[in-house]
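Sequence design from tokenized structure. All designs in this work follow the same two-part layout: the structure record, then the generated sequence. An example of the structure record is given first.
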């Protein structure tokens, strides 16, 4: 005989479902930014160099 599934398996399924939703939302937010990343990274790099006192 098989026993009834424990409530722990329901918690695992819930956590995996939430993780999947969060992952898909993050992908939806990041994919449109892919074309904008190089200019954004250059500005971040310049900002960090300013903080470090470099003038390369």
């Amino acid at each position: 005989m098989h026993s009834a599934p424990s409530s722990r398996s329901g918690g695992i399924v819930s956590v995996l479902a939430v993780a999947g939703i969060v992952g898909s939302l993050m992908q939806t937010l990041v994919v449109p930014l892919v074309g904008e990343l190089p200019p954004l990274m250059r500005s971040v790099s310049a900002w960090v160099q300013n903080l470090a006192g470099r003038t390369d």
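The chain has a mean pLDDT of 78. We note this feature because it recurs in several other targets discussed in the main text.
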